[in-house]
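Convert to structure. Protein one:
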Amino acid sequence: MATTEVTSEVIGSVWKVEKAAGDALAEGDLIMILESMKMEIPVEAPVAGTLSELKVAPEDSVEEDQVLCLIES
C-alpha cells in the first residue's frame, strides 16, 4: 500500500471536516474545507483509497504545506 500525504495549499484554519478516519475516498472527494482570508478552500482527495489519519481538527490553524491527513491506496 502507498501512503499519500495531503497538504495545505494556504495559511489559514480548518473550517469543517467532511470525512473521518477509515472512510473510503474516491479521487476528488471533499475531505475538509479550510478558511483563509474569508475564503473557503476545499481540500480534495488526490487519489482513491482509505482516509487513514486526520492530523487536524476543526478550528486548528494550519500552515502552508502542513500535512492535513494521510490516504492509504
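Protein two, convert as well:
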Amino acid sequence: MNMYNILVLEDEKDIAMGIRTYLVNQGYKVFIGENGVQGLEILEKEEIHLAIVDIMMPKC
C-alpha cells in the first residue's frame, strides 16, 4: 500500500486533531500546520499529495 501524505492547515487545534485522527486511522500520513506560513514550510520539506486548508485562518 502506498503511503499518501496529507497536509491539514487549520488554526483550531481540536478540529485539526479530529481530522488528523480520522485520516491516520485510514492509513494516511498527516502533517499539521496552524497557518499559511507553516504550511509553506511543510510543503518545502515534504511531498504532499493533498492539502486540506481552512480558508479563514491567520497568516495566509
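The domain at 5-53 is CATH 3.40.50.2300 (Rossmann fold). The beta strands are 5-9, 29-33, 50-53.
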